[in-house]
Write a structure and sequence with these properties.
5-stranded antiparallel sheet, single chain, binds cobalt (II) ion, two-stranded antiparallel sheet, binds ligand Y12, alpha+beta, Peptide Deformylase
Length: 173
């Protein structure tokens, strides 16, 4: 399946994703194609809406201590539900749909979630550190929320100005 990354300010990023009820070859194809484009784009997390599929599907592939990603560590998370959340942490986040921008975002430090894998099997997961942050970032995508939506009014204004400039320069190049 040929996929492209949808970039802000594309309105599709505001769409709410729907629950997956059929776990078939079409879903496997979407998951495999999402993995390929995430790795090709140097990403560590991707939600299906970022490739224009409004389904509750997300991938996380965190790098190891040498900054290398391994496919064995890939998490395929379908229909996630956060069951518990605690603490507070701040991390400078980036997103493949908002190229070249990184902002400090406050999130829960620890979460417990339930989700399904590509075969529909249910799992629960306790996450902290970067995994917890990445999962919360991607679950926000499923609800049409981008990390820039969490900025203060003044930081968002500054972002919009710089982003517009970046898009203009990219168009010229
Ligand atoms: C912590 C915080 C947020 C996440 C969500 C997943 N985010 C990404 O995978 C971001 C990827 C990204 C990749 C970029 O490309 C390169 O570095 C070559 C990038 O840079 C440019 O657009 C130039 C920005 C973001 C997970 C964990
Ligand atoms: Co993102």
């Amino acid at each position: 399946m040929k996929l492209n990354i949808v970039e802000y300010p594309d309105r599709r990023l505001k769409e709410k994703s729907v629950e997956v009820s059929v776990f078939d070859d079409k879903l496997y194809d979407l998951l495999d194609s999402m993995y390929d484009i995430m790795i090709d784009s140097n990403g560590i997390g991707l939600a299906a809406i970022q490739v224009a599929h409004a389904k509750q599907v997300l991938l996380i592939n965190l790098p190891d201590e040498n900054d290398k990603q391994h496919k064995e560590d890939l998490l395929e998370i379908i229909n996630p539900v956060i069951l518990e959340q605690s603490g507070e942490t701040t991390y400078q986040e980036g997103c493949l749909s908002v190229p070249k921008f990184y902002e400090d975002i406050k999130r829960y430090e620890k979460i417990k979630l339930k989700y399904q894998d590509r075969d529909g099997k249910e799992h629960t997961l306790d996450a902290d550190g970067l995994l917890s942050i990445a999962i919360q970032h991607e679950i926000d995508h499923l609800n049409g929320i981008l990390f820039i939506d969490k900025l203060s009014y003044s930081r968002r204004k500054k972002f919009e100005k710089e982003y517009k400039k970046m898009l203009k320069e990219r168009k010229k190049a």
